[in-house]
Predict the 3D structure of the following.
Amino acid sequence: MNGKSAGGSTRSAGARTVPDVAGAAQAGAVVPGGAATVRRTRLRGRALVVAVGRVAVLVVFLGTWQLLAATHTIDTFYFGRPSGIWDRLETWIRHGTSQGPLLTQVWVTLQETLLGFGIGTTLGVVCGIALGRMRLAADILAPYIKTLNSIPRIVLGSVFAIWFGLGIGSKVALAVVLVFFGVFFNAFQGAREVDRALIANARVLGAGPVQVTWQVVVPSALSWITTSLHVAFGFAVTGAIVGELLGAQQGLGLLISQAQANFDPDGVYAGLVITALLALTAEGLITLLERRLLRWRPRPGSNR
Amino acid sequence: MRTELRQDPEPEPDAARQPVTPVPIVLDGVTKRFASPRGEHREAVRDVSFRVEPGSFTAVIGPTGCGKSTLLSLICGTERPESGTVSVDGRPVDGIGQDIGFVFQTDAVFPWKTVLGNVAAGPRFRGVPRARAQALAADWVRRVGLAGFERYHPHQLSGGMRKRVALAQTLVNRPRVLLMDEPFSGLDVQTRQIMSDELLSLWELTRPSVVFVTHDLEEAITLADKVVVLTAGPATVKEEFDIDLPRPRDAREIRHHPDFVRLHELVWKALRDEVRVAYERGLGAA
Ligand SMILES: Nc1ncnc2c1ncn2[C@@H]1O[C@H](COP(=O)(O)OP(=O)(O)OP(=O)(O)O)[C@@H](O)[C@H]1O
Ligand SMILES: [Mg+2]
């Protein structure tokens, strides 16, 4: 168990904040009664403070930005301004972008991201678990994997643009490469750190090598793997967007680079906002998936 | 690997309670070496010979670090001896056999499986269909006193309850050879006694040949037909004692039996010197 907590703790640190609010809000809905009510009220009070605080940070940030832009303290030519970004988003939604409807752009980027994420994750998990189980193969391949990993992989974007052209293939390829290594190393480590006692127990109970892999190694490595998924999705988005920046016919990356070419900072920021929303949604979904897969673990923070 | 299936790979719940055909375990001049961190070879077990009669309960006792766990892995087939032979049912051990059950010293239940899933794991690994495996498992979960906890995960159980899961997980396979490595260590005295009684009644149910490793002399005498005392590492057999106390035994009451006191004195004399050697070695190393 100990080995896994290293992977698990980073994961839980990121995942804690949001559930706190949800959990406290639920608790607050319970019928009042005695001392528990006091605690619940206090919890609800805290949740409210957190929610209000979050909105406040956003308002202050956007307000300051808008104010500085309005008073010409900062140059809107470089920094844009929130109202301009909002206008741009509205125009895109209402009248479409110069490259066609906004939804099409989002969909193209999303497709590239999801394909890259899916393929990269699958390959990473399969290779990581397989090599984690096969010591000899892992030792033989180690220097090559390290070499591949040390290449600045973004550069491969240009290579893929040549190989796969301007379509979605080159972006997916870049996203796959970026996603693969993160997931691979975590899955590999996870497969390595499996408690020997659990493997011995499974073998004595009658498990063959395949059963040991599926029923012991994979579940043990799961907390390592799901940890890497959070970062991996970020990599997938990066791969898709960078791929589009390097040359594309559709997509959010192209939208951003067009805005940049037209000296339109509001357009660049509007593109970033949409990308961030995509990533945030995905992050939420991954957290849900993670909780579902790791239901058997003690909930962090619930140790009373 | 001895992988031939027993006659009844899919026993009916009733058949699950029938005694197994017990087998003898014979160790003959067994020696096991391990490479120490400095690269030289150190003997963990040296020239050990003893016999476990079919269906009997043998306790192995010795000071800490003497090689008890190693001895069990040799019988189990997860480790191979450098010389000598270990045979189960007249055949030399070659890999992990189908007939073996092993309750490990460390907590080895699967944390991601429920109690029921853990107990059903063995039959599932051995190809028993899910529904049938779960029925068998439910039966054993009840028998080790965990009815109502089927859907719990290990982290929601106490240490004693996890040991029960481990026991049920092992017994559901109806092993003909049951190896137990300090299964009750870390439990309080009362729980140990309750678990000892339970173990004895479960053992009476299927009657496998048992090798039970422990530090605890009283526990050894309470449970066993024979106590094997090992020397401080490398483990050799110092002396064997037949425990001819009447069965069925009650873990609390048997301690007041006059023969118990006599046997305790006798075995302790053999064990005492070894414990002292191990202790002084420990001091020397510290
Ligand atoms: N896999 C291994 N590699 C190297 N040395 C080992 C290995 N397993 C055991 N040993 C050594 O063999 C000796 C006996 O170990 P073992 O675990 O069998 O002792 P034990 O009697 O079970 O101790 P305890 O009562 O504390 O459980 C020890 O000195 C240990 O260092
Ligand atoms: Mg031991």
